[in-house]
Amino acid sequence: MRILGVDPGFAITGYSIIDYIGNKFHLETSGAILTEAHTSFPLRLEKINQELDDIIKTYQPEAMAIEELFFNNNAKTAINVAQARGVILITARQNHLNIYEYTPLQVKQAVTGYGRADKIQVQRMVKMILNEEKLPKLDDVTDSMAMAICHAHSSKFAQKL
């Protein structure tokens, strides 16, 4: 199964393409879609749409795993992330992907076995599971890897959107 893991954001959208075959993982590619703060918000959303569409068309994943939106104290940030997430969801649907969402607790549980694991514990397990020497500098990219791993471990029980 080829999984697109996405950590949604409007400044940084982390993505990973992970193959999961016979209980083995292979990281095909990962990176971040970056948008500039000085760019108008609609153009930032358009860039996310176009780059994600290219990634999907290039790597042909079967499913997308995305973080369920959680609310923080900054309402403006939450609304902007929600808009970016909406663009990501529609891009996936336009490419006929099955979409699955997971809470941070579910991701931590699936990756580390402990739902209250801290970021460092999750990063160490992602590195070990994917057999990578080092992880990307951006946490958003590592988070997208964890999202894809979570889906691989949870796909039998997952409800698609």
Protein architecture, described:
- The protein is an alpha/beta fold.
- The chain has helices at residues 41-59, 75-94, 104-112, 119-129, 139-154; strands at 2-7, 12-21, 24-34, 63-67, 98-102.
- A five-stranded mixed sheet has the order 3-2-1-4-5.
- Strand 1 (2-7) and strand 2 form a beta hairpin.
- Helix 1 (41-59) packs parallel to helix 2 (75-94), helix 3 packs across helix 5 and helix 4 (119-129) packs across helix 5.
- The longest helix has 20 residues, at 75-94.
Secondary structure class reads alpha/beta
Assembly state (oligomeric):
single chain
As a percent range, the share of helical residues equals 40-55%
Instruction: List the strand order in the largest sheet.
Output: 3-2-1-4-5
How many DSSP E strands? Answer: 5
Biggest sheet layout:
5 strands, mixed
Number of alpha- plus pi-helical segments: 5
In the predicted model, the low-confidence regions spanning at least 5 consecutive residues are none
Beta-strand percentage range: 15-25%
Radius of gyration computed on alpha carbons: 15 Å
Average pLDDT taken over every residue: 93
The sequence of SSEs as H and E is EEEHEHEHHH
